[in-house]
Amino acid sequence: MTLNTPLPFDIETMRTTAHRLLADTAEPPTPDELQTLTLQLRGHLMLAIPDVETATQAVPEDTEARAAALACISEARRHMGVEPTRSLPTAIAHAQRLARSLDALCRQYEALNCGQVTGDHWSPAQLAFRRWAIHTTKCRICRTDDSHCDRSRRLGNHWNQLRRNPPTTAGTPAPAAAVRRCGRDG
């Protein structure tokens, strides 16, 4: 393998790593485990970001799928640029943010490469994710602080509920007015 050959994008391994911190039944890691997990998450993000960026280039510039993917990339880079304090709870929270960013990038990669987000039809979970992603890139609090505002937490919780318990309908049309309104919330 030469130096310019990219490593494969292994979504399953990345998700397994992320879910070690995000699962409802996850136990807090020891400081050594946390350091290892954080390094793994950062490495996975370094591999995922360029692949998701490449996948966005195949999508027309004015589509919401591209905007959502680019928002995920921006959020992941922002989290990677933050160094947590030395306390264990803060380090766990930072690692969980990295894990959520990685999980979101994996979803975007799948959506862009598997055709899950096409045309004007979005699943309720995809719409909820878009609302959250657009809000976090436009909100002053979410952009300047490593925490999120109350609206961001509500939008994120709504997205998590929908992706864990998807409705039975296949897709929902995304009206242009709702898309524009979503981008102005903040």
Automatic annotation (TrEMBL):
Ranges annotated as biased composition (Low complexity): 166-178
Superkingdom to which the source organism belongs: Bacteria
Pfam families: DUF6415
InterPro entries: DUF6415
Region Disordered: start-end pairs: 164-186
Protein name: Uncharacterized protein
Taxonomic path: Bacteria, Bacillati, Actinomycetota, Actinomycetes, Kitasatosporales
